[in-house]
Each structure stands twice: as structure tokens, then as C-alpha cells.
Amino acid sequence: MKLSYGDEGTGPAVVLLHGFPLDRTMWDAQVRALSPGYRVIAPDLRGHGRSPAPDGAYTMDQMAEDVVELLDGLEIQGPVVLGGLSMGGYVSLALALNHPERVRALVLTDTRALADSPEAAAAREQTARAVLKAGGLDDVIEGMVARLFARSTFHDRPALVPPIQDVMERTSPMGVAGALRGMALRPDRRPRLKEITCPTLVVVGDCDVISPLDEMKALADAMPGARFQVIRGAGHLSPYESPDAFNSALLEFLKDLPPHD
Ligand code: MLT
Known about the structure:
Elements: E1 5-8, E2 13-17, H1 28-34, E3 39-43, H2 60-73, E4 80-85, H3 87-98, E5 103-109, H4 118-134, H5 138-148, H6 151-156, H7 161-170, H8 173-184, E6 200-205, H9 213-221, E7 226-231, H10 238-241, H11 243-255
Parallel strand pairs: 2-3, 2-4, 4-5, 5-6, 6-7
Antiparallel strand pairs: 1-3
The protein binds D-malate.
Residues 19-20, 86-87, 183, 210, 236 line the site of D-malate (MLT).
């Protein structure tokens, strides 16, 4: 699968994986902040943005292989800094566990190590069917958007919302269904977290209702060498809602990484 991607800047490679059902533009503020010192590669995961949206369930392992294929195509064989938000975090965990030699550091943002409960998996299947039947996301966008942002973001920075809604509206129904079905299949990663020994930054918005702060703290505690950062006043989209606070935490983390060749 050939993914569409952005590739900006020069320096050590930082790969950023977006959440569901978004695309790489959610990282625009990080691309701007990092690209003076880093090569920032932000793909559209399969089914999202400008990448192809084939039929079938997109497992997190499969999406991780797509990213490895992209890095191979770019001839980036050395380990990268890999960051992912939510679904992008599920994919990052899969990639770090399946290809530890490709990851020199990990940034897990507003994401989860747990699998779906049977109820959550059933709800995803229901949404997948509804979106495919309707041929679009119109009926589900409002409910999804309500859970993505902190309440204060809706009040104080309402202009942040429409660009995210627009991206969702453009996401193909096939892509949405594939990602929902793939997320429902993802395993509980908690038993394997201790295998991830590279430097890790775990970030959460304190108003995130999808990956709550306590769960993210437990995720950080389960990983040797993880740093934990809370972004105050942000929801599930902390890098997008509070780019200054997020970027300074990320840049600080990157600056402290051991040098690599
Ligand atoms: C995301 O932001 O990627 C989604 O909330 C992930 C999920 O539905 O589990």
C-alpha cells in the first residue's frame, strides 16, 4: 500500500501518525515547529486523507506495515522517533513491538493500550455498517466531534473545530469502516508494554474523555523509561488544541534523546 505523506525539514526523522478519522493535517503545527531541526514525515494512514481506502478491516499491525513500507520507500532504514495520537498510537505500539529496531523513541499521545470491550467493539461494527449504508459520516460526525475536544476549546477557540469536521467529512466510508473494524480487533497491549524499552513520552490532555488521564498515567507507569506529560485544558486532540504546550514538551523530549547516527 502506497501511503500519501508529508515530508518536511531535514535532520533526525520524526514520524507522526494521526488519529481516527482524521489525516496528517492534524499535525500541521508540529510540522512547523519541528521541521527546522528534524525531518518530519506525516503519512495519511490507509483509508484516510489521500491514501487508498481498500475494503476489509485495517488491523493496527497492517497499518504499521504500511508505515514500514513507506520508510523503506524513503530509504530510512535507521530507527526513527515515532509518534501517534489515539489510533496513530495503537499503530505506533504495533510498530514498536513488531519492529523495535525501527524505533529509537516513541511518543504516545491521547491513546490507549487496552483492547475494546465487547460492547465497544459491537458499537464500532454498528457505526461501520451505518456509515457504509449512508455512504458518508454525516450522521456520526457530531457525536464524534463532541468527544474530541475539551469543552473550553468549543467555547474559547471554536475556529479549531470546523477544519477537523471538514477532514472527517472527506474521509471515505470504506476507510472509516476499515479503521473501525481494525481498531475493534486490536489486542490488549498491556502485557507487552514492558518490552518497549526505548525512551518514551506519554502525553495526555487532562480533559480527554476517550483516553483518560488515569489510564494514560498507568500506560506510562508500565513502560520502563517513559516520561509523562499532561497538557492542561486540552482534550483528545492535545497537539492540535494546545500546540504550544505540546510542542515544547515534544521538543524538550527530542533534545534529551541520546544522539544517534
Ligand atoms: C482516535 O482518535 O483515533 C479514536 O478516538 C480512537 C478510537 O476510537 O479508539
